[in-house]
UniProtKB/TrEMBL annotation:
Domain Thioredoxin intervals: 1-159
Active-site positions on this chain: 35
GO MF annotation list: peroxidase activity
The protein's name: Glutathione peroxidase
Domain of life: Bacteria
Similarity annotation: Belongs to the glutathione peroxidase family.
Length: 159
C-alpha cells in the first residue's frame, strides 16, 4: 500500500485522500494543543508560510493518546490552534498514532521510519515524519526536534 492510498478524515469528518498531496514534500506531525511541545505550532506554521509555495505540506494529526493532552475536537480544535498559535496548515480529525487502534497512516509511517533502537511506536506528541515528493518516508524526528532544527532537511527535499 502506498501512502497515497491512505484516507484520513478532515476536522469536520469528511473523508480525504492523501493522494491530494502527491508531488509535495510532506511534514506529518501528531499534535496536541495542551502539550508542552505545543509552542512548536508556531515553528510549524512558519515552515508552512515559508515553503508551501515551494511544495511543502505541513499536516497535523491531533492525538489524545499521551496524557490526554488533546481534549478538543473538530472546529474547536482548529479555532484554538488558529487563535493561540496562528495555525493555518491543515489539522485533521483526531486519530490513534499507537496501540491496537493505530490509524493506517501511522502504521505506514512507523513501519517505514522506525524510531530509536528500531522502535515502531510513537513515544509522544509532536513526533514528525518527513515524506518526499514520491511518497517515500525519508526521516522520523523526535518530539524534541524543533521545526527550526529540521528546516535544512526540508530545504534539501524541496530542491
Amino acid at each position: 500500500m502506498s501512502l497515497y492510498d491512505i484516507q484520513v478524515k478532515s476536522a469536520r469528518g469528511e473523508t480525504k485522500d492523501l493522494s491530494d498531496y502527491e508531488g509535495k514534500v510532506m511534514l506529518i506531525v501528531n499534535t496536541a494543543s495542551k502539550c508542552g511541545f505545543a509552542p512548536q505550532f508556531k515553528g510549524l506554521q512558519k515552515l508552512h508560510e515559508t515553503y508551501a509555495d515551494k511544495g511543502l505540506a505541513v499536516i497535523g494529526f491531533p492525538s489524545n493518546q499521551f496524557a490526554n493532552q488533546e481534549p478538543l475536537e473538530g472546529d474547536s480544535l482548529s479555532e484554538h490552534c488558529q487563535i493561540n498559535h496562528g495555525v493555518t496548515f491543515p489539522l485533521y480529525a483526531k486519530i490513534d498514532v499507537k496501540g491496537t487502534g493505530i490509524h493506517p497512516l501511522y502504521k505506514h509511517l512507523t513501519k517505514a521510519a522506525p524510531g530509536f533502537f528500531g522502535s515502531k511506536g510513537i513515544k509522544w506528541n509532536f513526533t514528525k515524519f518527513l515524506v518526499d515528493r514520491d511518497g517515500k518516508v525519508i526521516k522520523r524526528f523526535a518530539p524534541t526536534a524543533t521545526p527550526e532544527k529540521i528546516e535544512s532537511t526540508i530545504q534539501q527535499l524541496l530542491k
